[in-house]
Amino acid sequence: MQPSREVHRLSTIRSLLLSELGGNEARLNFINTRLILSIDVDLNTIGLEDRDPQKVAVTVETLRKMGFLKHGEGGRGA
Amino acid sequence: MARDVVCAHSGQVATADALAELRPQLSDIDAVAIVFFCSSDHDGIAIERALKSWAPKAEIIGCTTAGEFTHLAYTQGGVSVFALSGAKVKRCAATMATYGAGVVVETAVHEAANAIATKLQVDLRELDPDHWVGVVMNDGLNNNEEEVNTVLGHVAPLLSFVGGSAGDNFGGKPITIKETKVFHDGREASNGSVFLLMELAVPYVILKTSSYAPTDKRMRIGRVTGRIVHEIDGKPAAVGYAEKVGVKPEELNNMVFAANPLGIMINGEPWVRSAVAVMPNQELMFGCRVREGADLQLLRSTDLIHDTNDALLKSVRELGKTPSCGLLFNCVHRLMTIHGLGLEGPFRESIGAFPVAGFNSYGENWLAFMNATLIGLLIG
Fold this sequence. Notes:
The complex is a heterodimer of chains A (78) and B (380).
Chain A: H1 10-20, H2 25-39, H3 53-65
Chain B: E1 5-10, H1 15-25, E2 31-39, H2 44-54, E3 59-65, E4 68-70, E5 74-75, E6 79-85, E7 89-98, H3 105-120, E8 132-138, H4 145-155, E9 161-165, E10 182-184, E11 187-189, E12 192-200, E13 204-209, E14 212-220, E15 224-225, E16 228-229, E17 231-232, E18 235-236, H5 237-245, H6 254-259, E19 262-266, E20 269-273, E21 275-278, E22 284-286, E23 295-301, H7 304-319, E24 325-331, H8 332-340, H9 344-350, E25 356-361, E26 364-365, E27 369-370, E28 374-379
Parallel strand pairs in B: 2-3, 8-9, 24-25
Antiparallel strand pairs in B: 1-6, 2-6, 3-10, 4-5, 4-25, 7-12, 8-12, 9-26, 10-11, 13-28, 14-23, 15-16, 16-22, 17-18, 19-20, 19-23, 21-22, 24-28, 26-27
Helix pairs in contact in B: 3-4
């Protein structure tokens, strides 16, 4: 699986997602729990995984299936 | 005077007798949402049709159980019913998805979600999770729960769908598990799911508790096929697991598994994955999928009654008041612990503070599929 051309870091994904959620940290944590349980990615404790291309790609794919990050760095509707 | 909440129960094992006992209990509610739980020896379609005839406006889903209960009764072989009026539910919609030969779970769940969205004329992704909540019950024997939860996360990522997997009779010796079913709209499915989405007129909280705490031991999951784990810590799974638990592989049994599950820790809470059986080549079957390469924490049992009481108190504080009712999904692993330690009385007391209805499930749902957990939807 190739990493997304738009996003190369989980920390960037976190920022984009938080922006799409209107800055609502509680909702981010809700989505994050889904990510941890489904794809073993925790956007709140990224560390060395920040640039793991596999994790980035899987995370982007999963969030896009949820309707987030539809337009890459522009996020939903951009 | 009309009631807004009813948690009804019958311990009768014949469907006609159970319905005769249930009818008067449901006579003074104008129900719009009903969830029922019945022994697999009952005629679930007949129960659903009867409930619909008594409450024609209601959206109704149901499933078979490994035991059913309310705040007043705790049985194997009976029926429990959870009913809400329009004072609690502004609007709701239910549907069923069936799987099986040629039917892709992902497609079926998408179609079910679309059916609900069409009925309600809403976009599920735009719904406010503070007011909308769902219930999902899956059949308990076809291992589709993980995918169902994943797809629910795609179609409605901000919504909670809580629930459990349908059970089969669990009280006999030996335990005989043959078939589980879900019910909706005059139909049943032994390979499917039922969904109910509600816009609540009152606040709600979700309760999740499992009586486990993390130990300092971890297990690295190796090769996995479905829910079968082949390797743990580089060894045959049963060997690797037994070593960490501190028993011999030949000593692994249901009670060891129930006392020593694995878990993913999130914000200090365990999301439990329980081994359920040793397979012929020293593989372990789990009650839900574990990810290949996952690093899971070994959990240890804590005090089930104390933890249940604590979780209920925490939920009451979160809700700001005693709930008017609750829908509970209690894992059969907890049932085994409750029976094994003679905790039936204390457990009934712990869930007896306000009206509840629920059943003993083959796994629980909230954001993912899990084991050995009590999941509850508590309504204000």
